[in-house]
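Good morning N.,

You mentioned wanting to compare the apo and holo forms, so I went ahead and generated the holo version with iron/sulfur cluster. This is what I fed in:
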Amino acid sequence: MIKSVLNNNSFSKQDIKELLLSDKSDTALLFEKSFNQKKTHKGNKVYLRGLIELSNICSKNCYYCGIRRDNKRVSRYTISDKEVIEAARFAYNYNFGSVVIQSGEVQNEQNSKKIENLIKEIKKLSDGKLGITLSCGEQSEDTCKRWFDAGAHRYLLRIETSNHSLYKKLHPNDDMHSWEKRVKSIESLKKVGYLTGTGVMIGLPYQTIDDLADDLLFMKKKDIDMCGMGPYVEHFDTPLFNEKNSLLPVNRRFELSLKMIAILRLIKKDINIASTTALETIRETGRIDAISVGANIIMPNITPVSYQKKYRLYENKPLVNKGIEKLLLKFDKQLNPLGEEIAYGEWGDVR
Ligand code: 5AD
Ligand code: SF4
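and this is what came out, ligand included:
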């Protein structure tokens, strides 16, 4: 009975699997409970993080990602400092609490310096008020520390999957794509002092329900502060596209993603959980659906539109070009019936 599982104080792996496999009315009970927990522990607020896709240059070659190094059909860009500052000022003017700087993984001094300066400039223009999250891949502890000292205080580094051997199937088998190193990077981010987030893709080829349950237990064990996870969405220009016939239907991937968010909310009650864009790729209301089951962060894309087109990790990624006012109004309208509201000008951190 799902009711008795939901009443448990702590979930075993078997409990989590049962929740992931729940059907209709049972799933509804799970979602009701997770949304209640969100309201109890995070209030009726949804926090905004303006997403700036700084660069699609990446030195890695993950088999699932559209901007992987060997995809020669991608036209590569890095946004000028001036445009990044403009985007951050825009977020500040619209009273966003934070921005996220996301990019492919590049490890060199020029890149470290550029990002360090951008962080300082964004802090300066906002009187220290804009919170800064980074999502720039694995970096040396020294670089992470420099960025932290410059003023960034959150870092997102998805483990992608907690299953070591599945990770190996999704990445080239070399030193650059090491699961162990990635785990160490997550630990090192915590050591530096960041609020640290991780996450996984849901509905990957070869991924099982056991894997997903382990993913949630991994996040519990690592005691993360934030999570961003969403469905795997295939991209035709990647090696993993060959496995497309073995995938779960998109609706099932979507539903599993909502369940993962809901269960995580029950496991880690007060962390920040992002409602990710990939959800919206599958269903137009995806991001609000995630809020209604326990997510509490929305990341509107504020990258200049000309660049957004080139930052295609997966297919059908929606472009935000209708103007942010319209988008915020739309969110407002959708959040209202849930009794939720956008928290302007607030960070909404765990600690
Ligand atoms: N589908 C869904 N998410 C993807 N990502 C990369 N490629 C895909 C894809 N095809 C996610 C990874 C990465 C994040 C920046 O984007 O989880 O960590
Ligand atoms: Fe690069 Fe990240 Fe894409 Fe991997 S998932 S290829 S690290 S941008």
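The first helix runs from residue 2 to 7.

Happy to go through it together on a call whenever suits you.

Best,
F.
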